[in-house]
Design a protein that fits this description.
InterPro entries: EIF3C, EIF3C_N_dom, EIF3CL_C, PCI_dom, WH_DNA-bd_sf
Keywords: Coiled coil, Cytoplasm, Initiation factor, Protein biosynthesis
GO biological process, one term: formation of cytoplasmic translation initiation complex
Shape: elongated
Strand order of the largest sheet: 5-7-6
Subunit structure: Component of the eukaryotic translation initiation factor 3 (eIF-3) complex.
Radius of gyration: 44 Å
Protein name: Eukaryotic translation initiation factor 3 subunit C
């Protein structure tokens, strides 16, 4: 009962001691030499630090005698019990044990040697299955050595040479033996012959050098792998003295890399190390960061220009290889390093004309130093491509802008790097101008042009300002040309002479875009019509088609800013008729309701998106188009009497929005841009031109347009003029004559302007009236058509509808409009005849056709429409 119940005055220690006395006294006679037994409950109440041999560790007497130092050791002992590994024994002492820490390099060498021992064991028992497996493992380990730019160990070369001897002996024994080996072992033996033969071919250079002088081969391996063995023997005092005093520079130096391994580079081993790095490119388990670090150290060691050129070519390529994914962009730090190295490469080859970097060269030994004195013609040709590096830099810069949030500060910081990229492109242009390489020169000029064609003059001057302090300045600069227009013109003229048709097309579109950006509408329109790009752009790539769409849109905005409302409406209508404006301009992915897009197609669409700073504001574009459509459609609706003609709209997108606004039961105050324009249209229909003007001018998006004040003034005058036309069309049947001065006061227009508008309407047979200048009135004429005239008019309308229907059927059979190339020969002639029959009818141009499958649709009949507006 004492084990489970204790008296009120008895303590825990007394209870435990009494229990121990009872247990000891009960066993004294039988086993006096045995130690005292533990209490029964101690198995379950034992602490983590208790051992099986310490039964009295919890007593109060020992705890009182333990010193502070012993307590600390006990705590360490308790913790170490749970942190021990499986290989350590439970009774391991608490003394410090020195452990050997090996680097990754030493571990790999030990693993190679262990695999070689496994091969030796397999040879002793003639088990070729084990030998084959171990040899495969050995090849993988040696390949891993090559991937991290480490030399081939002599042990592996020795093993391969020994395997050839063992194979020959095994084959000879197999022929002499009466009993054949089993099928599995025989297959493994045959496969080993092929593997050893392949290894001899792959490591032919190392095997031959080892066979010539094995001791020298091993010494080179030890000096490259374990240079710390030589330095460890130096006394510390001497090392300190060497640090305090200045010592001459040496070719080689040591660096400690990942895992504590030491690498040594020297001038003699540059090409050998460079070859090992190049061979490891693209292979699995290749440490790209390690490769870049090795090449950076090699660049510091390089002495001659040839060595620097070779290392820079490999280093820039390795930086571009760092990011193998197409979807993600290159890290900005790596991009900046690559940009500086490309500049350094261009600087070297531009300063010394005896070195030339070309994509196609004669074969040369990559392990030997080359100089102009030993080459034919005195020019050392190195295999590489600077223009490919420039293209990749530009593409990675664009890709980074596509993937960075445009509304954050990171996008602005990244956009600042465009200046250094533009500087690199101009330096490359100067280099190719000096070396007269026409094809790369055209490509780099095209890259330069696409960086500045869509930018205002202030931004172009900032980009060009960095060229003045450079030692490599191209022949065409802003300072030499005087203005941005002259600079763009000179770059485009250079590309017009190039052999590449794609570069000529893009140069023409950039030139037209720049003219339209500076409000030179007529010049840009004439260039577009004379180039006939609308007829052949369907055969270009998607990026060129996007550039064409952007050029057409900018042309429409230019016409709008110049006050050419009809031209702006007809040009922008082609884009808005497709209802895919963002997709056509590469400013967003348009997802249709019943259209299934594969992930690959969606990924390709997103990769074609333009950076945010190059976007054309779609809301501003829509405002310009709808206002232009309002000023064209509203007077036309007022002049048409029959409902059938009213259904034939010039601008279907505008007419659809207007019909929707008319069906609204309640119209609140305008909120969006569309609401302002629809309410202004209804006010213009009712003759309230002042209300219409105020609604149009209150649109906030006009603030984003250059010269917003002049644009608003232009829109006010156009609304006054179209309001006058709408009033005359609407109320002409109710007047016999109308005073011109009254019209002038009503619409706040000069009398001369009113007279001009009325005379033009009479001349175009839009108004049945005559102008009496003596009295200053307009006399309206009423024409009553006879029954025969009415019937003839109906027949003419039906014949016109029948012709249009037949032409639609013909287009369907030959390929629906646009620039479809499926028909040739007779079909092509019929299609041309049908297009000629359409002529210059007033149905309006439309982007009905297009290059299907490329994500874009283009204008059909843009040339005819723009020629008609001239």
């Amino acid at each position: 009962m004492s084990r489970f119940f204790k008296r009120a005055g008895e303590s825990d220690s007394d209870t435990e001691s009494s229990e121990e006395e009872l247990l000891v006294s009960g066993d004294e006679d039988d086993a006096p030499s045995q130690p005292a037994a533990k209490p029964a409950m101690s198995r379950f109440l034992r602490t983590a630090g208790d051992s099986d041999s310490d039964s009295d560790s919890g007593s109060d007497e020992e705890e009182s005698e333990m010193s502070d130092e012993d307590e600390a050791k006990e705590e360490v002992k308790k913790k170490s019990r749970f942190m021990r590994s499986d290989s350590e024994s439970e009774d391991e002492s608490d003394e410090d044990v020195k452990r050997v820490v090996k680097s990754n390099k030493d571990k790999r060498l030990d693993e190679i040697e262990a695999t070689g021992k496994g091969i030796d064991n397999g040879l002793k028992i003639n088990d070729w299955v084990v030998i084959s497996n171990e040899f495969d493992k050995l090849l993988r380990l040696v390949q891993r050595q090559s991937n991290v730019a480490e030399p081939i160990p002599p042990f592996f070369i020795k093993t391969v040479i020994g395997m050839e001897t063992s194979l020959n002996e095994a084959i000879a024994k197999e022929k002499e033996a009466k009993k054949k080996m089993n099928a599995t072992n025989a297959r493994a033996l045959n496969s080993m012959k092929q593997k050893v033969k392949k290894a001899f071919k792959e490591y032919e250079t190392e095997i031959s050098s080892y066979q010539k002088n094995p001791e020298e081969f091993e010494r080179e391996f030890i000096s490259m792998v374990q240079p710390e063995a030589a330095t460890a023997q130096k006394p510390k005092k001497a090392k300190k003295a060497a640090d305090d005093t200045t010592t001459p520079e040496v070719d080689g130096f040591e660096t400690v890399g990942k895992g504590g391994k030491t690498m040594q580079f020297s001038v003699e081993t540059i090409f050998k190390t460079l070859k090992a790095v190049n061979e490891a490119r693209g292979k699995k388990n290749t440490d790209r960061t390690e490769q870049m670090r090795i090449l950076e150290k090699l660049l510091e060691v390089a002495v001659t220009s040839y060595q620097r050129i070779r290392i820079l070519l490999a280093l820039v390529s390795s930086r571009f290889d760092y990011n193998s994914s197409v979807a993600t962009f290159m890290p900005i730090e790596l991009w900046l390093s690559a940009q500086r190295e490309v500049d350094q490469l261009v600087q070297i080859v531009a300063a010394d004309s005896s070195y030339s970097i070309q994509e196609v060269t004669v074969d040369y030994d990559e392990l030997e130093e080359r100089s102009p004195a030993t080459e034919k013609g005195g020019i050392v040709q190195v295999r590489g491509s600077i223009i490919s590096f420039v293209d990749r830099l530009d593409d990675e810069f664009t890709k980074s802008l596509q993937n960075i949030d445009p509304h954050g500060t990171e996008y602005v910081d990244r956009l600042k790097d465009e200046k250094v990229l533009y500087h690199t492109i101009c330096r490359a242009q100067c280099f190719y101008e000096k070396t007269s390489q026409l094809d790369p020169l055209s490509r780099v000029v095209s890259r330069r042009l696409e960086h500045i064609y869509s930018k205002p003059d202030a931004v172009i001057s900032v980009l060009e300002s960095s060229l003045s302090a450079s030692d490599l300045v191209p022949s065409t600069t802003l300072a030499s040309q005087g203005s941005s227009k002259a600079l763009i013109h000179s770059l485009c003229v250079h590309l017009y002479k190039a052999d590449n048709s794609l570069l000529r097309t893009r140069a023409m579109l950039c030139h037209i875009y720049h003219h339209a950006l500076h409000n030179e509408f007529h010049t840009a329109r004439d260039m577009l019509l004379m180039s006939h790009l609308q007829e052949s752009v369907h055969s270009a790539d998607v990026l060129t088609q996007i550039l064409y769409n952007r050029t057409v849109v900018q042309l429409g905005l230019s016409a709008f800013r110049c006050g050419l409302i009809k031209e702006a409406q007809s040009t922008l209508h082609d884009i808005f008729a497709t209802q895919r404006v963002k997709e056509l301009l590469a400013q967003g992915v348009h997802q249709q309701r019943f259209q299934n897009i594969t992930p690959e197609q969606e990924r390709a669409e997103r990769q074609r998106q333009l950076p945010f700073h190059m976007h054309i504001n779609t809301e501003l574009l829509e405002a310009a188009f709808l206002v232009s459509s309002m000023l064209v459609e509203i007077p036309l609706l007022a002049s048409i009497d029959s409902d059938e003609l009213k259904r034939k709209a010039i601008s279907k997108p505008f007419r659809r929005l207007l019909d929707f606004a008319d069906r609204q039961a309640f119209t609140g105050p305008p909120e969006s841009t569309r609401d302002h324009i629809m309410q202004a249209s209804k006010a213009l229909q009712d003759g309230e031109w002042e209300k219409s003007r105020d609604l149009i001018q209150s649109i906030k998006i006009w603030a984003l347009m250059p010269e917003a004040t002049s644009v608003k003034d232009m829109l006010a005058s156009r609304i006054q003029e179209q309001g006058l036309r709408t009033y005359l069309f609407t109320y002409a049947p109710y007047y016999a004559s109308l005073s011109l001065s009254l019209l002038s006061r009503t619409f706040s227009l000069p009398l001369r302007t009113v007279t001009s508008l009325v005379s033009k309407m009479i001349w175009n047979e839009e108004l049945s009236a005559s102008l009496d200048q003596s009295t200053g009135v307009v006399v309206f004429h009423r024409i009553e058509q006879s029954r025969q005239q009415q019937l003839a008019q109906v027949i003419a309308d039906k014949v016109n509808a029948l012709v249009e229907q037949n032409e639609k059927v013909l287009d369907t059979k030959l390929g629906s409009g646009g620039w479809s190339d499926r028909g040739d020969g007779a079909k092509g002639e019929k299609r041309e005849q049908a297009a000629e029959r359409k002529g210059n009818r007033s149905r309006g141009s439309g982007l009905r056709g297009g290059s299907r499958g490329r994500g874009s649709r283009f204008a059909q009949g843009l040339g005819n429409q723009m020629a008609r507006t001239r």
